[in-house]
Amino acid sequence: MNKPFSKVKSVKGELTFAGDKSISHRAIFFSSMANGKSVIKNISLSEDVKSTQKVFKELGVEFYYDKSDLIVTGLGKKNFLPPKNFLDCGNSGTTARLASGLLIAQNFSSTLIGDESLSKRPMQRVIEPLKLMGAKIESSNSTLPIIINPTDTLKPIEYDLPVASAQVKSSILIAGLHLSDQSKVIEKFITRDHTERMLELPVDTVGNRKIISTSEKFYPVAKEYFIPGDVSSSAFFIVLALLTNNSELIIKNVSLNPTRTGFIDILRKMDGNIQIENVKYSSNEPYGDIIVKSSALKNISIDESIIPNIIDEIPILSVAGIFAEGIFEMRNCKELRYKESDRIKSICDNLKKAGLNVEEFEDGFCIEGEIKNNAVTFNSFNDHRIAMAFSILAMLIGNKSSVDGIECVSISNPDFYPQVKRVVNFN
Ligand code: S3P
């Protein structure tokens, strides 16, 4: 088992995080679709959420800030303006996939584009169900650009999700909000459920399957949203506090949605000392405070059913695994290959640089052995979660390691390095 040869003396204090990225995307979608003024409190400051805002600006929606509240003047059903430019989703898969579901129901043509990384990510997963709904949606090689043309013959579907993806689920649910008859999405593995919570969609559970229904009855109305802090951004600090001696970190008002906190369940099973307090609700979303104390961790086996719930936290969970007793093994997570980088490869390449024994599988990886090199320049692969996970590892293995290309952290958390300065005491 590795012991942190740390340049970090302790992690102490309190952090709050800007609004959760997934919930913020949806708050912008639903307030833009609604008729009239909505107020979004504690909106995410991430570049990804700015991409969603940019897409809706191009569709005629007006945004302004009243102090830190984002005020959105939504246009109401089918009142978006035809875009004069391509709709640029930047690095954001959530923007591209959710927007596809919205745009198939508009009476104008549109083209979705993205940056180099997003342009390589799979889009057939949304094109296929939306085509089954009768959409006129095309892409030359199942990636962006996606071209959408209007049709007035959309029809509802019942769709069994072939991949565990909240983005695909949400794309269909948003399309279905434009039809009087019900569409249903069925999922075997439970993915993040912000769309159904925020729209208050009917949900049935049959055996191990979840069935979510949608129709125009649930079309969003203007309202006030409070977005709880981003729990995925907090994961990096939770792991750092657990692995550092003499640490106690409090994270206030962070999302505690159970489809997002699988990493906390896993870290607790690994003997992590993590307490949850002051649970409250806003827009059907639970949030509260997390208290983390230094802990000696042990590795555990990770079940396939929890993978969609921890998909964004696997890079930082692997860092925890390196310093836990036993071998860290992640399987059944091939979806990681389709994220902002091929995260299985990004994690394995970086860990090999530290001299760890790493075995790469098509659907995961296994890490064991000692860190033999503590002067490593890790690669961010231009992927925000890889940059943050390996910045934490660099801090834990001494003062000679660093990460190349850290600017990409702003895709989800531009405050990452100021927050490190706030709570981390260095030797
Ligand atoms: C997201 C869903 C997940 C996640 C992504 C955000 C969302 O992607 O990895 O960071 O907001 O719906 P998939 O649905 O493709 O798994």
- Overall body shape: globular
- The proportion of residues forming helix, as a percent range, comes to 25-40%
Separate helix tally: 13
Spatial order of strands in the largest sheet: 15-16-14-1-22
Structural class: alpha+beta
Ligands in the model, by name, code or SMILES, are:
shikimate-3-phosphate
Distance between the termini: 22 Å
Rg value? 21 Å
- The parts where pLDDT drops under 50 for at least 5 residues are none
Query: Beta-sheet strand percentage?
Result: 25-35%
Average residue-wise pLDDT: 97
Biggest beta sheet summary: 5 strands, mixed
Q: What is the β-strand count?
A: 22
How would you sum up this structure in a few lines?
This protein has helices at residues 21-33, 47-58, 93-103, 124-132, 166-176, 194-199, 231-243, 262-269, 307-310, 314-322, 343-353, 384-396, 416-423, and strands at 8-16, 35-41, 62-66, 69-75, 87-88, 110-113, 136-138, 146-149, 158-160, 183-187, 203-206, 209-214, 224-226, 248-255, 273-282, 285-293, 328-330, 357-361, 364-368, 377-379, 402-404, 424-426.
